[in-house]
Structures are given as C-alpha cells and as structure tokens.
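Summarise what follows for lecture notes:
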Amino acid sequence: MPAGRPTKYNPEVHLPQVELMAEMGLTVEQIADRLDVATSTVSKWMAEDAAFSEAIKRGRALSDERVEASLYQRATGYNHKATKIFMPAGATAPVYAPYVEHTPPDPTAMIFWLKNRKPKEWRDRAEIEVEVTDLTKGMTHQQKKARIEEILANRKRTEGT
C-alpha cells in the first residue's frame, strides 16, 4: 500500500477542467489554485500522466490560436457590426442604428507580427560601416614607438588638467 495522502486527481473530472482552464489562458499556478492543490501537484500530474499533460497542451494551443488570430486582425485592421443608440428630442423610445465600424490596422501589432514572423527582414539592427586606415604604414619600429609615447604623454597632460 503506497504511503502518503491519497491523490485528489480524478481523470474523468480533471481532464476536461484543465483543458478548459488552459484554453481560457490560465497559468499552471492559476489552474492549481482553481483545483485547490499546490502548483507542484499540477506539475507532478503533468509529468506523470500523459493524458493530463496533453489536455493542458490542447487547451493552450486553442488559446494561442485565438490570440494569434486577434493579433493578425489588429495588424491588418477589421470591420465589426455595432449599434448606435439615439434618444431624439420628444421621442418616447430610443432609436437603434446599426452600422459597420472599421478598426484600422495597428502599427505596433504589425511590427510585432513582422519581427516574429520575418525576423531576418524586420529585426532591429544597426549597420555600421567602418573604414580603418593604418596610420603607421611606412613608419619604422622606432617611429611607431615614438608616436605611442607622444600620444601617452598628451593623454597624461589632458587628464592632469
């Protein structure tokens, strides 16, 4: 007989619950809180029970797909139905006016999408061209040494003032 407290895990009850919670975007900590168990317990169930782990993965995948679709809509703009409600002067009932509202593309969503989907073309980068000239070309070893000593002496003078 195994030692310790009996498990609260019941696959018939917990599998549909955790899939739905993961689909709602809950973290492992939040799922544990809702199930009234420790976070380590949920992590243990994920490690020991493939069905439990898969239920969370399925839920997360659905949640991620919805967020991705929403981000795409924000990046490209979209239309949605809306209704304006008016109360004309002297009227006894409000007037409902359906219309189509346009949400323009959001530049921040566009940039986020492109940086993640096409990182080579859209990453933030600075291209700097540097041309290096050898100022000691044609100098003898003795001349180079003298120039270095001159630079160091000038440096000491400027730092001392």
About this structure: Strands lie at 78-86, 95-103. The longest strand covers residues 78-86. The chain has a mean pLDDT of 90.
